[in-house]
TrEMBL record:
Protein name, per record: BRCT domain-containing protein
Compositional bias per record (Polar residues), positions renumbered to this chain: 488-500, 514-523, 576-586
Pfam short name (any one): RTT107_BRCT_5
Region: Disordered, residue numbers: 196-238, 453-532, 559-595
Compositionally skewed regions (Low complexity) per UniProt: 223-234
Comp. bias regions, Basic and acidic residues: 561-575
């Protein structure tokens, strides 16, 4: 044997894993998993929480069964994938590192435990189902395997269903309607009413309301102010983990008695923690309201900020959980949510802790929660529509919504539009009380409460404690960072501070005029106007999304065949049709509707001046185009074609190019409308030699590169944008993210640190992606101090700073190739 010959390495030879223990991943399970990883040359570190938090330096993957652990947001900010243990076995089975996105334990990806395949469905339906499941964290298999958990089928007679039944496999055979309803609600609902061979939803209505079956996650989180209650675990039971080496501050606004404070002190100290009156020494801040100097200091420093209900929950379970995981575990706002104090809301068809939780959530918004429904009520929140209250609300014109409207309004701190179909969708055989309490708070929405402009003059002298990002690894009471076990001998890297990276695929929805180039000053007022404009456009966006789908939702044959709730869609007839056909029956009208061609084109349009300021003409033209098989969309990821008068630098045009649509002239629309037929788009390819020469690009070459890039042109690159950038941060953020990059806002703060690009650049051969960090700016002189601070931050992190004008990003995205930065550097 040649000793000089390199030995073959295992699958995980270049990986370093951290395994997070929890109630669902015990120490024994973690050690077993670690042994398997080491067997294939992986480096493994099992967390030793609560003694130390995770040191993420050098870590490439974190393995956990839940996203509810202290360092989850630090992993997201550092772009380190968090995967479930099954990712290991699946990677070994395929002998390659599988994309971790489909294995996230984050509950926002509610299909993460679903592996689906389809049987006896048309190809188009299968594509629609697979796209929805993949987008929500699930997996899709083109054929039946042992890993499949759900078979999507219209009947139980398929080959896959027969095989699963004969082998007695633990597989659920469900109608496609289940996927459709899950995606509409944004929640995973019970499969039982949709399961073959005898699905309840296809049976005639029995007049019986659906009953709740699931245990909801609101236990211990129903009341944000349980100050008069005594924690359940005031008994001598010793807590082993949750307070060990932790320092807790009880804020003065809690209003608790000295007796209760003494009880809490005894519990915390018996569990290995201590109480403090100084926020800079605390790891946990317990307060009632989102206000005050101590609250802001604790929040800015990234400490755990929760309310008394959260503290009681920790005592009850002795398991750490994020105070952002449940809406009423975080301090409330004095005065409530803007727009809500004038509302009178009643509840129907919720019971037990779910009802108590929703009543307290209504009170936390500032609205009035009424026991009975009267004509002066503004909203009725219900789990299903089969009740006397719902019937009365319809008669009185009261808004009927599900609890998701309330939860998401509170989480986003903005009243959500009731025109969003998610909030008015009630599956026939599902009690929505089963999915109460799954909505989480958004860290970036909460920043408005502790990063407000009036506090920007707060000096370091006023804040003696070291400032750190929200998601940074835990700091001890003395302010020193805990490090990993000594035998690893590595230095920890601080994760980036400003932007949370979520693995949701970027989706673009326009928030203003479509032809606005990145040249308009972005002020706070313009952001508010854009946000208001988005809410005005919500009904139209929903209408387009609805029209994009064929009748019947995801599965058309199934619903046409068996859905008893299919109402015939009537269509206005023209005068010519009426005179030609005389007294033709309604049946003929319905046949005309069904004879519409299926969509052959999804078209995104930019720069069509004919529609500017003429909504009626726009609506009529789009209806005519739809009848010709042309669906106008605002989502570039769905567009097959892009229409423009010439090459324009609008947000729509630039983002759409990343998906390689066929770029055609705007004349195609006029020609189709004039001739009232679908013309060949190849005859209308966009010809714009002048702008191609000026911008030094070729549309066809850009399309070819986009096909090869697969939306990963900027993969592994961190791109900052100035806070006051012309065109607005969100514009450039959209462009960066649709091309696979990571976009952060540069606020010129000392707490900002350069992000780790290890996770993004894993397997990349482009060294620039590892070492370059970009700041996109304009050439104004007042920005120069920010450029200097950015350069210092990048160099301190071992990166090469690239400070470039906005033209570099726009032209890079339009040409679909990384352009050299030298001509664009300031």
């Amino acid at each position: 044997m040649d000793l000089d010959e390199p030995q073959p390495q295992g699958l995980f030879a270049n990986c370093s894993f951290a395994i997070v223990r929890s109630a669902t991943l015990t120490t024994k399970d973690a050690e077993s998993l670690a042994g398997e990883l080491k067997l294939h040359d992986g480096e493994v570190y099992i967390d030793d929480y609560p003694e130390n938090n995770l040191d993420l330096s050098g870590i490439t993957h974190v393995i956990a069964t839940t996203s509810d652990f202290p360092d989850y947001h630090a992993c997201c900010d550092a772009l380190i994938p968090v995967v479930k243990p099954i990712w290991v076995s699946h990677s070994l089975a395929k002998d390659k590192l599988i994309n971790p996105r489909q294995y996230t334990p984050d509950p926002r990806f509610f299909m993460s435990d679903v592996v689906a395949c389809v049987a006896d469905l048309p190809h188009g339906d299968a594509d629609a189902i697979s796209g929805g499941i993949l987008a929500m964290g699930g997996l899709f298999s083109t054929k039946f395997t042992s890993q499949v958990t759900h078979i999507i089928s219209l009947s139980s007679d398929s080959e896959a269903c027969d095989y699963a039944q004969k082998k007695r496999l633990n597989v659920k055979v469900v109608l496609p309607h289940w996927v459709d309803d899950c995606l509409k609600l944004g929640r995973k609902i019970d499969e039982q009413p949709y399961m073959l061979p005898d699905p309840e939803i296809l049976k005639p209505p029995m007049g019986k309301a659906p009953s709740g079956k699931r245990k909801t996650p609101v236990e211990g989180a129903t009341d944000p102010d349980p100050s008069q209650q005594q924690p359940r675990s005031a008994q001598p039971r010793r807590l082993r983990k949750v307070f060990k080496n932790k320092t807790v501050m009880l804020a003065g606004d809690l209003g608790i008695s000295q007796y209760l404070r003494d009880i809490l002190h005894e519990i915390i100290t018996a569990g290995g923690g201590e109480l403090t009156d100084f926020v800079t020494k605390a790891n946990m801040y317990i307060g009632k309201y989102r206000e005050g100097r101590d609250y802001k200091i604790a929040s800015r420093a990234g400490k755990d900020v929760g309310n008394l209900a959260w503290l009681y929950f920790l005592i009850q379970t002795d398991e750490w959980t994020s105070p952002l995981r449940r809406l009423l575990h975080y301090p409330i706002v004095r005065g409530g949510l803007p727009g809500f104090p004038s509302l009178k809301i009643s509840l129907s068809n919720y019971s037990g802790e779910a009802r108590t939780y929703l009543e307290n959530l209504i009170n936390a918004t500032g609205a009035e929660c009424t026991k009975t429904l009267k004509q002066d009520n503004t909203h009725l929140i219900t789990a299903h529509v089969m009740s006397e209250k719902c019937a009365a609300a319809k008669d009185w014109g009261i808004h009927i919504v599900n609890h998701l409207w309330l939860e998401e309004s509170y989480a986003r701190w903005k009243m959500q539009s009731i025109t969003d179909g998610k909030y008015t969708h009630f599956p026939k055989r599902t009690n929505l009380g089963d999915v109460v309490g799954h909505t989480q708070l958004d860290r970036h929405v909460l920043e408005q409460f502790f990063l407000s402009s009036e506090d920007t003059d707060m000096t370091d002298a006023e804040e003696p404690g070291p400032m750190r990002p929200m998601s940074k690894n835990t700091v001890s009471a003395g302010g020193l960072k805990q490090t990993r076990k000594a035998n690893r001998g590595q230095t920890s890297n601080d994760p980036p501070t400003e932007q949370l990276r979520t693995p949701v695929p970027p989706r673009f929805i326009p928030t203003g005029k479509e032809n606005v180039t990145p040249s308009t000053t972005n002020s706070r007022k313009s952001k508010e106007v854009a946000s208001a404009r988005l809410h005005e456009l919500t009904p139209d966006i929903l209408l387009y999304e609805k029209e994009r789908k064929r009748v019947g939702g995801v599965v058309y044959g199934g619903r046409r065949k068996a859905g008893e709730d299919r109402a015939p869609v009537e269509r206005k007839r023209s005068a010519d049709q009426t005179s030609a056909n005389g007294g033709e029956s309604d049946t003929a009208t319905k046949k005309i509707k069904r004879s519409n061609p299926q969509p052959t084109m999804h078209l995104i349009i930019s720069g069509f001046n004919k529609w500017v300021g003429r909504p009626k003409i726009e609506d009529n033209d789009k209806k005519q185009l739809k009848n010709l098989g042309i669906i106008c969309t605002s989502d570039p990821s769905k567009a097959t074609h892009l229409a423009a008068p010439h090459i324009v630098r609008t947000q729509k045009f630039v983002t759409a190019l990343a998906y390689a649509p066929l770029v055609i002239s705007i004349d195609f629309i006029d020609a189709c409308l004039d001739e009232n037929k679908f013309l060949n788009p190849e005859d209308f390819r966009l010809q714009d030699e002048e702008n191609e020469k000026r911008l030094n690009l070729s549309i066809e070459a850009s399309r070819e590169r986009a096909r090869n890039n697969h939306n990963q042109l900027l993969e592994g690159r961190s791109i900052y944008c100035m806070e006051n950038i012309h065109g607005g941060f969100e514009t450039f953020k959209t462009i960066v993210e649709v091309n696979g990059g990571r976009c952060l806002q540069w606020r010129n703060r000392k707490v900002q640190t350069v992000p780790s690009s290890r996770a993004d650049s894993e397997g990349s051969t482009d060294n620039d992606a590892d070492h370059d960090v970009y700041l996109v700016t304009d050439g104004r002189k007042e920005n120069k101090p920010s450029w200097s601070r950015f350069k210092e931050m990048a160099e301190e992190g071992g990166k090469v700073p690239r400070i470039v004008l906005t033209d570099w990003l726009l032209e890079t995205a339009m040409s679909q190739q990384i352009l050299p930065t030298q001509p664009y550097e300031v």
